[in-house]
Design brief:
single chain, alpha/beta, Rossmann fold, 2 domains, six-stranded mixed beta sheet, 6 strands
Length: about 270
């Protein structure tokens, strides 16, 4: 389709169709006037809410489009799509798995987005929104990733994922927790959970991550795991006390974190 054809049909295109065709618009030479209308729709709060797009789709669109004229609209859309990721009180530790397995396959069947990029979106948003959030990437080792409150989420996700491989390619959740937990009020782990066994695991907890609760994270501290690998068996002591694991990752999932926190603080919305 050429520019004339695209400009003739853009007015009747749905939100997802617009999002997926930004590259085609640029290659066809879409006029700036029409592009401004597309950008306005992409960043409109009501349109974003109705579209129910997974937040990482805006990162994918940003990476696919050759023109920077879509950047601000996609940034605003991403902010609105992640609006229900809460800013928690106290200190929060966020660990994002940057191992090789997080980059080797697509996040879903219909997407080219890798799990590590999808995870980085939420890690960066939480770090940017929270008052005291420590974001780390981990594999065989760990690295700290400070996020400025004024930073672009889209650019910060690029900066984070560029560090994949910096600390190895394995997955060592237990060691990462020991290296980073410093009396935080909660811990969020985003990983495919293909972790090495914990050599210092407490035998009564059955090994794996669950064993580090005794020497790394107190049992009174909530730990939220997001399992991007689809494994049926959890490496967390999920369902016991303050240990929770979620299958997959999307913006609605974080509503559960807020509800669980409200329950613990007697703020449950009855």
């Amino acid at each position: 389709m050429d520019r004339v054809a695209w400009e003739a049909v853009i007015g009747s295109m749905g939100y997802m169709a617009l999002l997926r065709n930004l590259r085609n618009f640029d290659q066809a030479g879409l006029s700036d006037a029409v592009a401004e209308r597309v950008a306005a729709k992409l960043s409109d709060p009501d349109e974003v809410a109705r579209s129910r797009q997974f937040p990482y789709r805006f990162v994918s669109a940003f990476q696919a489009a050759p023109s920077l004229r879509w950047g601000y609209a996609l940034e605003k859309a991403l902010e609105r799509a992640t609006g229900n990721i809460p800013a928690f009180p106290g200190r929060t530790l966020v660990l994002v798995d940057t191992s090789a397995s997080m980059s080797e396959q697509a996040f879903s069947r219909r997407s080219t987005m890798t799990p590590v990029k999808a995870a980085a979106v939420f890690g960066v948003v939480m770090a940017k929104r929270g008052n005291a959030v420590d974001l780390h990437g981990f594999a065989d080792g760990v690295f700290a990733h400070p996020v400025d409150r004024a930073a672009s989420v889209l650019k910060e996700v690029e900066r984070f994922t560029a560090r994949v491989g910096e600390v190895g390619h394995g997955t060592r959740i237990a060691e990462a927790l020991r290296a980073t937990y410093r009396r935080h009020d909660r811990v969020v782990v985003v990983s495919d959970m293909q972790t090495f066994p914990d050599s210092r695991a407490v035998r009564s907890y059955g090994g794996g991550y669950t064993g580090v609760a005794a020497d790394a994270v107190p049992r009174s501290v909530p730990v939220y795991g997001f399992n991007l690998g689809g494994y049926q068996a959890t490496v967390l002591d999920a369902g016991i006390g303050n240990r929770h694991e979620f299958g997959g990752l999307n913006d609605a999932t974080f509503t559960m974190l807020k509800l669980l926190e409200d329950r613990a603080s007697a703020g449950w919305p009855f």
